[in-house]
Design a protein that fits this description.
Layout (H helix, E strand, L loop, with lengths): L7 H15 L7 E5 L3 E5 L2 E5 L4 E7 L8 E8 L10 H7 L1 H5 L3 E5 L3 E6 L4 E2 L3 E2 L6 H12 L9 H4 L11 H15 L4 E6 L5 H14 L6 E5 L2 H15 L3 E3 L11 E5 H4 L9 H6 L7 E4 L11 H5 L5 E6 L4 E2 L9 H6 L3 H5 L4 E3 L1 H7 L4 E11 L10 E3 L7 E4 L14 E3 L7 E2 L1 H17 L7 E4 L3 H22 L8 E3 L2 H13 L6 E4 L14 E4 L6 H8 L13 E6 L12 E2 L18 E4 L3 E14 L2 E6 H15 L3 H8 L2 H9 L6 H9 L7 H10 L6 H11 L1 H5 L3 H22 L8 H6 L1 H6 L4 H12 L3
Parallel strand pairs: 5-6, 10-15, 10-17, 11-13, 11-14, 12-13, 14-15, 16-28, 18-27, 22-29, 23-25, 23-26, 24-25, 26-27
Antiparallel strand pairs: 1-4, 2-3, 4-5, 6-7, 7-8, 7-9, 18-30, 19-21, 20-29, 30-31
Helix pairs in contact: 6-7, 7-8, 15-16, 19-22, 19-23, 20-23, 24-26
């Protein structure tokens, strides 16, 4: 071993790659899977910079034209580390499952250790010269997976992506392989669980395309919920299949199409009371060879199960962000929300063959980071330890109580003894509470970017959604008048079943109107609205499935508008459902044994004093492979621990920071694709500080300096050094320091920095080259800029 230890990247390039090549692993069998770019803050706004993580997968090929099939992952570690370093993390929560490969190797370039996920065994360290050959790993892969790659059933695995692999993400490839592997074993049902925004339609399209290219697809049906999803799906399928993909409508079943895209509603199977006649009249039994059910957490025991039952010999694939299981040990009632979307898809499809959760998507940088803002609401100033859980009849005695329909006063004796908080705005309408919550939300919008942010507010019922839209419009109108701003019209609007078709495109695309959508349970599944920056819970939610579907409206990243994070404003403790299992107990009957009776009157109560206080801020992040909420302080501790674990002291940190490749690799080792630094900057109002100072304080206790302070210190602390340089060089470095003051490290290293007027006027890139390599001069300047 040389005296100077090789870094992880050099170990890979100089030791591991040559050893793999010697064992028969040619470059076409080695895939470097890169996740999305890490996120840093520029001018107070998050944006992507660099790459988060590079996974090193080994693949085998049956022949020269076949699609390579991933079989193993290598964790490459720096030369000085033990060969098994990092293997425990891969075993504990994820590398093998995340990449969908049975074997994980860890190596320092001299020795390697293997973990076999199928047996659970870890090998002793072995010389890298004994690394398994492609032939050996192919044989072991086939044994582990239970089929031969040479068998006809495995043919779809060997078909190439239609337009190459450039556009697919690692987890999408892993999900497609997981389904194709199950089909290769002769099974016909598969379930995929992928977070909202992860690209389930992309997976469906390429899954069916590869099956078709292998000559194994006769006719396929893609079933989705609502016209908007059908339109999205049709565009994707037609790009891959052309005229062979067509949308079924009530007038045209598209029997000549190879791929039929249809909604539950068109097929007549959306509800238990539907007749399914469109399905039965137009598509005979076993008409389809392949069926993909999108949003399959819908009721498998309602009418849409007819689609599956009429095609028992078809390959059936379910897609969902929330795979449901019905608990059968008891016969207690399920919630009304769960009854509407109850589906034991695990019972029908089996356990998910691949899972990609929200936390993993955030960690990879493919989904927007999530901050949770919890609020507590007190009525008449009651100092309850928790959120108000309800009101007693006695609490209403001094209030104005009226029937919401007639406006007549209501006798207190006719009221319930107690109204739980979950009935607020449903059975007990509280105008002061609505107004206070809207004012509180509006105030938060003002301090987080302004009132014109795309926001979805989930409400208890239609009249509640009306009231919230009215209150938000009034607040916005008053704000515009006070600040001399022109009004967007409409600003807030209710999104109902009818209005959804008219308003949804405006919510998605309009930049000067349709900002606040109030809704009850629309916009909860599948609809792609990337620009949504806030998801608000004014509604009490019991169902984990409903909750995750609602939160999913904010997870999509929108590069066009710079949206890389979103906020959840929780006024009803809905976020307690983060991490809850998607398990439902079955209802014993439609009315659960209760006799029917006259509907209970809805009453409106005025006169409450409402106080709203902060209940804490939390961040959704990946903890031991699961999405969990942690406090900001705990999140900072996790960030600091990851930083110090990767770089032990401030000097080593500074050395890595000033070298862009080393810095990007370091950020890739931090939680949430480097988004963690941007989140802390925003949450702690540290946007005047560079990410270097934020991390230096968290990890090493160094007192932070603003970018302006660092720029000033660079000039006076290093005046002698600057004076020793030629004048154009000195002026150029000072101009670059000014760029740092404005935009931080990201601005200093932007490809455009040498085209800015100030830098060009000072001398530009040529002024640095006079001293040798411009990169060396710039590195020395950065070392001094980031000096303590």
């Amino acid at each position: 071993m040389s005296n100077v230890s090789l870094s992880e990247a050099d170990t890979r390039a100089k030791l591991i790659d040559p050893a793999l090549h010697a064992r028969g692993w040619t470059e076409d069998l080695i895939k470097r899977e890169e996740t999305a770019g890490a996120i840093e803050v520029h001018d107070g706004r998050p944006r992507r910079r660099g790459t988060k993580r590079t996974d090193y997968t080994l693949r085998v090929k049956v022949n020269a034209t076949a699609q390579p099939v991933a079989v193993a992952l290598i964790e490459a570690k720096a030369e000085h580390l033990p060969p098994a370093h990092g293997l425990e993390q891969a075993k504990a929560y994820g590398s093998a499952r995340r990449l969908n490969v049975p074997f994980v190797f860890s190596s320092n370039g001299h020795m390697f250790v293997e973990y076999d996920s199928t047996t659970g065994l870890t090998s002793v360290p072995l010389p890298i010269s004994e690394f398994p050959s492609p032939e050996a790993l192919r044989a072991r892969y086939e044994t582990a997976r239970g089929f031969s790659l040479a068998s006809p059933s495995a043919a779809p695995l060997l078909t190439r992506y239609q337009r190459g692999e450039a556009t697919r993400r690692y987890y999408q490839d892993a999900a497609i392989r997981a389904v194709l592997e199950k089909l290769a074993r002769g099974e016909k049902r598969a379930l995929l669980s992928l977070a909202t925004g992860a690209g389930k339609t992309f997976i469906a399209v390429h899954l069916l395309r590869r099956i078709a290219d292998a000559g194994q697809l006769r006719r396929a049906l893609f079933v989705c919920d609502r016209d908007e999803l059908r339109t999205q799906g049709a565009a994707a399928f037609q790009l891959a299949f052309g005229a062979d993909a067509a949308v079924a409508s009530s007038k045209e079943p598209q029997r000549n199409a190879r791929i039929v895209i249809a909604t539950y509603q068109t097929l007549g199977v959306a509800d238990e009371d539907d007749s399914a006649t469109f399905l039965t009249d137009n598509y005979p039994p076993d008409y389809f060879s392949h069926i993909v059910i999108d949003e399959c957490h819908r009721s498998a025991w309602g009418k849409w199960s007819e689609v599956l039952k009429r095609n028992p010999n078809a390959v059936q694939v379910g897609l969902t962000a929330t795979p449901r299981q019905i608990e059968v040990s008891e016969t207690t009632d399920a919630t009304a929300e769960d009854r509407r979307i109850a589906a034991d898809n695990i019972r029908h499809f089996g356990e998910p063959v691949y899972v990609y959760g929200m936390g993993q998507g955030i960690d990879d940088g493919y989904l927007a980071a999530c901050e949770v803002v919890r609020r507590e609401i007190f009525l008449d100033g009651k100092p309850d330890a928790e959120q108000v859980t309800g009101v007693e009849k006695g609490d209403l005695s001094a209030k104005q109580v009226r029937d919401t329909v007639t406006g007549d006063p209501v006798d207190l004796d006719s009221l319930r003894d107690r109204y739980e908080a979950s009935t607020f705005e449903g059975q007990l309408v509280l105008p002061e509470r609505v107004n206070a919550m809207c004012q509180d939300l509006f105030d938060h919008l003002l301090i987080t970017g302004g009132p014109e942010q795309k926001t979805i507010v989930f409400c208890a019922r239609d009249t509640h959604a009306d009231a919230v839209a009215t209150a938000m419009n009034n607040l916005y109108t008053a704000w515009c008048a006070a600040n001399g701003q022109s009004r967007a019209d409409p600003y807030a609007f209710k999104c109902t079943a009818k209005a959804e078709e008219d308003s949804l495109p405006d919510l998605k695309g309009a930049t000067r109107h349709h900002f606040i959508a109030t809704t009850v349970d629309l916009l909860t599944t599948g609809v792609d609205v990337p620009a949504v920056r806030n998801v608000v819970f004014f509604k009490y939610v019991r169902s984990p499935i409903a909750f995750y579907q609602m939160v999913g409206r904010g997870t999509r990243i929108d590069e066009a508008t710079g949206k890389l994070m979103f906020r959840v404003y929780d006024y009803t403790n809905a976020t307690r459902l983060f991490g809850a299992d998607f398990v439902t107990r079955p209802a014993t009957g439609r009315n659960s044994g209760r006799e029917s009776k006259a509907p209970e009157p809805v009453v409106q109560v005025e006169g409450f004093e409402v106080r709203i206080t902060d209940a804490g801020r939390l961040i959704a992040t990946l903890v031991d492979g699961e999405t969990k909420l942690v406090t900001v302080e705990e999140y900072k501790e996790r960030l600091a621990a990851a930083l110090v674990g990767a770089v032990p002291d401030i000097e080593a940190f500074r050395a890595r920071w000033i070298n862009p490749p080393d810095r990007r690799a370091l950020l890739g080792q931090l939680p949430d694709a480097g988004q963690s630094v941007a989140l802390i900057q925003q949450l702690e109002s540290l946007n005047d500080y560079d990410a270097f100072d934020v991390l230096a304080e968290l990890g090493y206790g160094q007192a932070p300096r603003t970018r302006a302070q660092r720029g000033e210190a660079f000039e006076y602390k290093h005046a002698d050094w600057l004076a020793s340089l030629p004048m154009p060089t000195r002026h150029t470095l000072k101009a670059l320091a000014e760029q740092f003051e404005r935009a931080g490290t990201a601005g200093l290293e932007s490809a455009e920095v040498f085209n800015t007027q100030a830098v060009v006027k000072a001398g530009g890139l040529n002024a640095l080259k006079v001293l040798g390599k411009a990169a060396d001069v710039l590195r020395e300047a950065k070392r001094r800029l980031f000096a303590a």
